[in-house]
């Protein structure tokens, strides 16, 4: 599907997200020759400056994030000609004259406003776009996370932005939904008959979803101290992955058909009580340790840190989904910084065989397990039992592996590439609807309120480990283990 002519205006155009993700993503579409001849990218920043000066920053900060195999000097030169810098104060209504003068008024041009700004500016920017005449029926707005700080602020954002733009014009972005493996999870579930009869409580023991990072907070302390792992990762990324795993088959791949089913999952999550909050939620904070053999400081000793901070850098949650398909199946979600490895994966563990006929010694039995790996190496792994070569009937676990890089030789899109293309094409399937956002906040809000009332500190864990021991106890009470704890040592 060819793209129509567009102007993409990036608020926060000089920032880290623009340089590391958005501009490299648009360059990749330039390299693929997807962009219309007249398409333009307007980068908006607070500082006075001209385009030539800004392009020097793009050369320094964005160019290094372009894959070497796709970089071509002629393509880069062509791409840079699309970029225009607009220096203005986004909170000042009078400053929008500069943006009005820069953008094209023709109705056949799609105007996209990407708000890579703090959420406190969302309503101000949208109101100023409306007052300046830029918020037209043919325009779209992209809201970057965090989409609120709690349920009340999320509702306020939805209300205020919704006064200016209709729901079909609002693209609430979660870059995890743009990952290739997430798309393949949809294909796995709804494009194959093999798994559907097994994708339910009768055959599945438990589901684990992990997003772990070796990195600490880096230069994001100002943001992270007011956010924490729950707001930064669980409320959005982890819950979105859970919805795709657990949703019922939609009637089609249209945006509302898919998002209706995801919303049903969020509404079916078992609500917390004071007892289950204490039993099924673990909050941790990393202290000093070693990551890949390098000594790293604890969270409270990072640059600009609050030495008495109670902000969590790790959270693990056990939940259940009260539906016929999933009743009684525990879902374990966890995320953390300064972990033993950087990975994102979904583990579907199937139940034990009801009766084993294999009694040979030296056999090693494991439950069948499907692992959907999102990063660093995207692919699918299916663990099965197989006979070892030789005499006798000894069984050992083996792994069937589908590596997407090896199986598909076509160039791969990064998450932001796919999502920006969907914005430009007006496809809403991979973006959160307002009721979806509010349902996710409503489910996690009791956790936030519980932590605010509790005097206990987050549980410390050593950097370079898999988090607090309490997280192992959380899943261990059900006779289970996190996947890396269950793997045999090499």
Automatic annotation (TrEMBL):
Substrate binds at residues 175, 179, 213, 232, 337. The active site is at residue 237. Signal peptide: none annotated. Keywords: Carbohydrate metabolism, Glucose metabolism, NADP, Oxidoreductase. Gene3D superfamilies: Dihydrodipicolinate Reductase, domain 2, NAD(P)-binding Rossmann-like Domain. Residues 186-483 form the Glucose-6-phosphate dehydrogenase C-terminal domain. NADP(+) binds at residues 46, 145. Residues 10-184 form the Glucose-6-phosphate dehydrogenase NAD-binding domain. Pathway: Carbohydrate degradation; pentose phosphate pathway; D-ribulose 5-phosphate from D-glucose 6-phosphate (oxidative stage): step 1/3. This is Glucose-6-phosphate 1-dehydrogenase. The gene is zwf.
